[in-house]
Amino acid sequence: MKLYVSTFAPNPRRVTMFIAEKGIAGIEQVMIDLAANEHKSEAFVAKNPLARVPALELADGRVLCETRAICTYLEGLHPEPNLMGEGFEERAFIEMADRRVEMHLFLGIANSVRHTHPGLAVLEQPQFPEFGASQGEKMREHARWLDGELARHSFVAGARFTVADITAWCALEFARGLMKFRPGAEGMPHLQAWRDRMAERPSAGR
After folding, report:
1. Domain GST N-terminal spans what residues (predicted)?
2. According to the model, what pLDDT value does residue 155 have?
3. C-alpha angle with apex 168: 203 to 143, nearest 5 degrees?
């Protein structure tokens, strides 16, 4: 299998962190340079018409796209350690937490960065700085929600590490690098403590 990724992009990082947590070997990584518009090349668009990374090319030539779908596929191939839930009930609650983080925290960060950071102008034309600034404020509202969740349990989806923690980690690291967002400095001590614990995981460096 081949995994198409891009340096610093948070969605590919979610998949590589998932792979690292699983201890999966043998997946070739192919780097796509977004700044050079390699994701819009004829060769890559033939694999993913939406011109997005990550994309997982299977041995039979089919290409699986979308971060969560790729992780679901890999979870099926490598069930342990389980990161997406044992049984329908736990799977549902983990998916709820993961979707909330992805749709509200992660997407808000992405929109803010893409519309306010000059380095992302090549990928987002036109940029709308006012929209980006408002998304940054909305992201903080959801970060405060997550801070409250982490005051009640150790991990994003409950008592153990799951795919939801991977999504939240990659989102916050993207915000830390390009928005200079520090939860502790903005009155979110539980989110900061969780972030610091996550930083100690070997997969966090992927």
Report:
1. 1-82
2. 98
3. 145
Instruction: Return the structure tokens found at 41.
Output: 């090349």
Please state at what angle helix 107-116 crosses helix 163-178, rounded to 10 degrees. Answer: 20
- Give me the mean pLDDT over the 140-148 stretch: 97
- Pick the closest to residue 166 from 54, 47, 46 (CA basis): 54
User: CA 9 → CA 84, 135, 140, distances in Å?
Assistant: 22, 18, 20
Q: How far apart are CA 181 and CA 23, in angstroms?
A: 30
Span 56-105, pLDDT tens digits:
999 999 999 999 999 999 999 999 999 999 999 999 999 999 999 999 99
pLDDT band, very low/low/confident/very high, at 129 (cuts 50, 70, 90) = confident
| Contact call for residues 131 and 111 (beta carbons, < 8 A) | yes
| Cα(184)–Cα(122) distance, integer angstroms | 32
For residues 107 and 67, the answer to whether their CB atoms sit within 8 Å is no
